[in-house]
Amino acid sequence: MGSGKTYLGRQLADLLKRPFTDLDQLIEQQEQCSIAELFAREGEQAFRQKEQAYLKKIPLRHQIIATGGGTPCFFDNLSWMNEHGLTVYLKVSLDILIKRLKAQTRHRPLLQGRTGLDLHRHICHLLQEREPFYQQARLIVEADQLTAEQLAQLLS
Questions:
Q1: Closest CA to 56 of 87, 84, 24
Q2: What percentage of the chain has pLDDT greater than the value 90?
Q3: pLDDT at 109
Q4: What is the pLDDT of residues 33-79, one digit of tens each?
Q5: How many Å apart are CA 150 and CA 12, to the nearest integer?
Q6: How much is the pTM?
Q7: Which is nearest to 91 in space by CA: 65, 115, 69?
Q8: How far apart are CA 50 and CA 66, in angstroms?
Q9: 8, 151 in Cβ contact below 8 A?
C-alpha cells in the first residue's frame, strides 16, 4: 500500500510495450463500486475472496500486474503468483509510506478514520504483518526513488 505499484507498473508496461492491469481497478470495474464500498458492504474476508478470484482470471502472458498491498498475504495468492510470473516487492521506507498514505486515508479501507500517531502505528503494524509475505517475492527492490527505467533494467 503506497509503494507505487500502480504508478510504476503503468509506466513499466508502457516502456516495455506490455499490457497493464491494476487488480483493484479491475475489481472496481467488475463490481461497479469502489474497494472502500466493497469493504464496507461485504467486509474484508468477502473482498479477499473476490480479489483472489479476479487475480486468477487475469491473462498472465507478458503482462504487468499491480496487486493490492494485501493480495500476497491471503490464501495461496503469493505462491500462485510466484508460480505464474515474476513477483516484485517494491520496498519503500516507512517514512515515505506514511507521507504518501497520509493524504489517501479516505480511499483506503484499512486506513479510514486514522490520523496522526494512530495512522503511523497502523501502517507500521500492517507492514510488520505483511513483510514476511513480501520477502517471498522473487525480486526485492529498494523503491524510495525508483523509476520505471531502473526497474526495467533490473528485470532484464
A1: 84
A2: 88
A3: 87
A4: 999 999 999 999 999 999 999 999 998 889 999 999 999 999 999 99
A5: 10
A6: 0.92
A7: 69
A8: 16
A9: yes
pLDDT of residue 100: 92
**Residue 137: DSSP 8-state:** S
Q: How far is CA 142 from the centre of its chain?
A: 15
Helix spans in the chain (H): 5-16, 23-31, 35-57, 77-84, 94-102, 116-134, 148-155
DSSP 64: E
Which grid coordinates are listed for 27? 475489481
Domains (range + CATH), the chain: 5-150 (3.40.50.300)
Residue 1: DSSP 8-state = -
- Give the residue-averaged pLDDT of 94-116: 89
Q: What is the mean pLDDT of the chain?
A: 95
Burial label, 29 (beta-carbon count in 10 A; 0-12, 13-18, 19+): exposed
Region 81-88 average pLDDT: 96
- Give first-to-last CA distance, the chain, whole Å: 25
Q: Is 114 helix (H, G, I), strand (E, B) or coil?
A: coil
- What is the identity of the amino acid at 125? H
Provide the β-strand partners of residue 88.
139
